[in-house]
Amino acid sequence: MNGFDFQDEVVKEEKPINFLKYLLKILRRWPFIILFFAFFTTLGILYNRYANPVYSIKGQFITKKFSENKSVIPGLVDAGYFLGGTQEVYEEIPLLKSNQKIAETISRLNFRVSYFAQGYVKTVEQKNGNGYQVVIDTLTGSTVPYGFNIFVNKKSDNQFRFNVEGSDQWEKLLEDKNFNYNQTYEVGDWIFEIRGGNGSASMVQNKFFFVINRNENLVSEYKKRLNISWQQQGSAILNMYMESVIPEKDIQFMNTYYEVVEELGLKEKNQNLENTINFIDEQMAMISDSIIQFQETIDDLQMENRELTLGSQTIFMKLNELDEQKAEVLLQERYYEYLKSYINQKRSSGVFAPSLIGLDAPLLNDLVNQYIQQKQEDKVYRNSENYKNPLVNREDSMRKRLEKNIFEALRSYKEVNRERLQEINQKSNFLMGSMSELQGEMRELSRAKRLFELNQNLFDLFLQRKTEAAISKASATSDYQLIEAPSYSNNPVRPNSERNLLVAMALGLLLPVVFFFLKDFTNPRIMDKDDLDRNSDMPLLGNIAHKIDDTNTIVKDRPKSLVAESFRALRANLKYLQGKDKKQAKSFMVTSSVSGEGKTFCSLNLAYTLAASGRKTILIGADMRKPNLTDFIEAYPDKGLSEYLAGYAEKDEVVINGQTNNLWFVGAGAVPPNPSELLAGDKMNDLMVELRKEFDAIVIDTSPIGLVADAMELLPHVDHTLLIVRQGVSMKQALSMVNGLYNEGKIKPMSVIFNDIELRRRGYGYYGGYIYGMGYGGYGYGYYDEDRLKKKKGLFKKK
Question: Is pTM, for the whole model, over 0.70?
Answer without folding.
Answer: no
